[in-house]
Amino acid sequence: MKRLKRYQYEKYAVLCNLAYPRVFRQTQYGFDPNGQRIIANRFGKTIIRVLWSKHQQEAIIVIKGSHSLWDWIGTFAMWQRRCKPLLLPYRIHAGFMALLSQESRPSHKDDTLGQTVFEKTIRISEELIRKGKRITVTGHSSGGAIGCIIADALEHRFPKSIKRVVTFGQPAVGGWQFKKSYKLHHKTYRICCDIDIVTFLPPLPFYYWHVGKMLWLYNGRIYENTPTLERLIRSLFSWFLRPFSYHLMSKYIRNKVFFDEH
């Protein structure tokens, strides 16, 4: 597996953050004036942006995390459903299945009624792949989870069409069968920050499994593929000791910047 470089991390993190505002001006970030397609949910709210430039081989699918009460309620649907409607050979989290299979409200002249979020994303991506683009998928929280499913579906249909998958604060997607069938372990980077509780969800060991390479940003370092239980124990231990760490002289020396020079 290739390493995720700092500029790549920053680019995808910025795009994930900017996916939440209602308006996103893609030309400010190097994409074409017509290089954005929006996929809306059943309420007409943007859930996915597909971005590209004719001068770049990479097209990027950016997916928001949970940003409505309905989305958050869906995260508690922790049973697994077959992916037959998505034509994939495994079961996934029922809440994520609902996000993908909901009808997408039209937001472009080429959109038609009756298409799901999944179908519309796949259709737009296929058009770009046929034009020679390779797809990077990035998403935050539940957006990262459904991003893995979208990326895997595209890889099943168009081998080597996925450049990489980068997720931030992503919960687990499916069970052992999903982990075995997932084709992009070597291209998937799952980034976790400190004790982000969502990255431990769903709290059902051996029923849910993560995929790809985990990069844990913790105490000023990057740890790779730290086991979930070890990560949880270390995080809780650090959290418990944190009030005492502020007593160390190193903290007082670090805060010297608060004092004016005389």
UniProtKB/TrEMBL annotation:
It holds the Pfam family Lipase_3. Residues 61-204 form the Fungal lipase-type domain. One of its GO terms (biological process) is lipid metabolic process. This is Lipase. It comes from Vibrio gelatinilyticus. The lineage of its organism: Bacteria, Pseudomonadati, Pseudomonadota, Gammaproteobacteria, Vibrionales.
